[in-house]
Amino acid sequence: MEKDFHHHIIYALAKIAGYDKKIAGTDETEAKIIAYASQYVDDNCDRAYTINEVDVKLPDKLPVKDQYFYPTLTQAVDITATKLETQKYVFMPFHFLPGHDYKAVKNISGICNPHCTIRNSENANRLLDDSLASKSAYSLYRIGIALHTFADTWAHERFTAFNEPWNKVLDWYKDFKALAPNIGHADVWHMPDQICKTWRDHRFDEDPVDNKKRALEAIEKIYAKLLEQRKGTPWKNIKGNLKTIIQLDKTIDDSDEKKVYDARKKKIEEFIGASISYEKDKWITEVIDCEVEETDEYDPSDPLGLRDKKRVARNIRLKDDFERFHWYKFQVAAKMQLSEVLGMTATV
Fold first, then answer.
1. Residue 198 bridge partners (DSSP)
2. For the chain, what are the domain ranges?
3. Do 235 and 223 form a contact (C-beta atoms < 8 A)?
4. At residue 177, does pLDDT exceed 70?
5. Which of 34, 83, 63, 86 is nearest to 289 (CA)?
6. What is the pLDDT of residues 131-174, one digit of tens each?
């Protein structure tokens, strides 16, 4: 799934389900934190963050109070994705959760895979149930992270987190996309995550995959889980609205991804009667301190030195009071989920 689901739709579902309580001392609600944490799973990664108008690449350990804090990544976008530890400790716990009932899934060669992601699996339900039952200071963040993983069991169904032949959908000589490593759904790029797409999984002798159908099923299951904890609007009263949000107007060309995204966001805002916004660097900006200076250092992206002096961040560190901010609480929640997933998948 992408931002229109992981943030916008999750925010709408949480708000309508009753997670609309204001957080003391802020203008935020429970639903806003849940939705931000859900989307931040994709943005808490090995990229450069924009902090105070400067690109900042976080070190593996962040200095604070003469000690260090070790962040936990929940996504990887650079070359580290090819490393086994990234696949095992980032992709599997947060995006490609193995299901106990994997033996029911056989590819066209009759083979099963114990690391296979299964939609609505026992593991996914347990993860989400545990987060919803939590009463700690990190519970909203745990819910958001678990909702991301739960939703991904539909989008990433029958793929694994690892670089292995099981994930091979295409032959390299038929489609250049197949040149990518067989990690997750890399063979078919972002198609499994895009609600508007219909695509074919050649590993199985089946009809094309309809992502809209998958998204609607995931929405219904998620909303049922949220309603178990709060007294929100009954599903039957909003089912039609959610179907319209997913299906959109038939005049909109599904191939125009920006138009589809904008139309879906507008439909969601009309449904909940409020605007939706997401700033991916908001949480990290609240906790990072650094010095900014201009430098003549060699910039590989500007080998001829045609740009103005480069502004770089020095002495990157956490603020002394970082533990009171969202980013830290998200980090703790991510570590909780990582620990839980490693426990439930210890035998595979």
1. 210
2. 3-344
3. yes
4. no
5. 63
6. 999 999 999 999 999 999 999 999 999 999 999 999 999 865 45
For tokens 């989920």, the residue is: 337
Ramachandran region of residue 317, left (φ > 0), alpha (ψ -120 to 50) or beta? beta
Rounded to an integer, what distance in angstroms lies between the CA atom of residue 63 and that of residue 312? 18
Run of H or E residues at 331: helix 326-344
Over residues 255-284, the mean pLDDT reads 95
* CB crowding 219-231: b at 16 or more within 10 Å, else e: bebbbebbbeeee
The pLDDT of 302-326, averaged and rounded, is 82
> How far apart, in whole angstroms, are the C-alpha atoms of residue 24 and residue 198?
43
Q: How confident is the model at residue 348 (pLDDT cuts 50, 70, 90)?
A: confident
Indicate whether this model's pTM tops 0.90: yes
Report percent pLDDT > 70 for the chain.
Answer: 93
Angle at 185 between CA 14 and CA 340, to 5 degrees: 50
pLDDT confidence of residue 68: 98
Please tell me what DSSP assigns to residue 277: -
pLDDT tens profile 108-124: 999 999 999 999 999 99
State whether the Cα torsion 123-128-129-131 is positive or negative. Answer: positive
Partners of 156 in the β-ladder: none
Identify the DSSP state of 208. Answer: P
Q: Between residues 309 and 22, which one has the greater pLDDT?
A: 22
Query: What's the token pair of residue 218?
Result: 């995931």
Q: How far apart are CA 289 and CA 65, in angstroms?
A: 12
Q: How far apart are the C-alpha atoms of 241 and 237, rounded to whole Å?
A: 8
Cα angle 320, 323, 327 (rounded to 5 degrees) comes to 110
Burial of 110 (0-12, 13-18, 19+ CB in 10 A): exposed
Cα separation, 342 vs 276, in Å, equals 34
